Amino acid sequence: MTLDTLSLSVAPWPEGPWFQLLLHVNDVDLIAAAKVRGMKPHEMLLPVNRLAATPEPHTVHIARCPACGDADCCDTDVTITRDGDVVHWDWARAKLMDRRVSFPSADYDAEIARVAADDSWETPALRAARQVRIDSHPYLEPLGLEFENIVERTKAGIFDFTLTNGVYQVVMEVPWQDRSPSELAAAVREMLALPSQQWDATWSPTRWELRDTPPLFAGSGWRRNPIFD
Q1: Backbone CA torsion sign across 165, 147, 137, 216
Q2: What is the 3-state secondary structure (H, E, C) of the chain?
């Protein structure tokens, strides 16, 4: 069996302020070759590294549509399986290569761990988001929520972030107040540790028919997104 090499890197999106995870197999940039965009690094690597290989196959998105940014639209999924001392990638739908690729498991594990630990590319807001994504899991999991994204508004001095359960999106804001990323992340953690009914939050449904039905974990002070008014 001929084994392949994997190298991962983080680069800016050409169209905006975000970053993408690039996949180089045998020194070929698969993302550029397929004319797509890579996934956001944090959503791939934190709090669980979705590229991690186990004997049980699992399928992950590895690219986004360059036009709309939707991973489902792009159709580029890979099924990852550990088979002894080899890790296999099988293309689930659209194929970025014309064959299965296989990596030495030790090299593969080292590379995905390396890129997950690298925070040199992060802005202050993304550095805070990294810590929030990790710290928030114990508070969000009982509610069926997960940390989704941030909106970096440095001029306004606000750290915006979104949570989701697939049915609702929750938006929360925390002022920077000259705090460091770690200090801001600690403030967010303290806020999320409160009962969800006490959060200062805005909610919106992902389905129009739920526009008048707030999530069960919402408090009386929660606001509906004005676009549904």
Answers
A1: negative
A2: CCCCCEEEEEEECCCCCCEEEEEEECCEEHHHHCCCEECCHHHHHCCCCCCCCCCCCEEEECEECCCCCCHHHHCCEEEEEEECCEEEEEECCCCCCCCCEEEEHHHHHHHHHHHHHCCCCCCHHHHHHHHHHHHCHHHHHHHCCEEEEEEEECCCCEEEEEEECCCEEEEEEEECCCCCHHHHHHHHHHHHCCCHHHCCEEEEECCHHHCCCCCCCCCCCCEECHHHC
| Entry pTM | 0.78
List pLDDT tens digits, range 74-86. Answer: 668 899 999 999 9
Q: Provide the β-strand partners of residue 3.
A: none
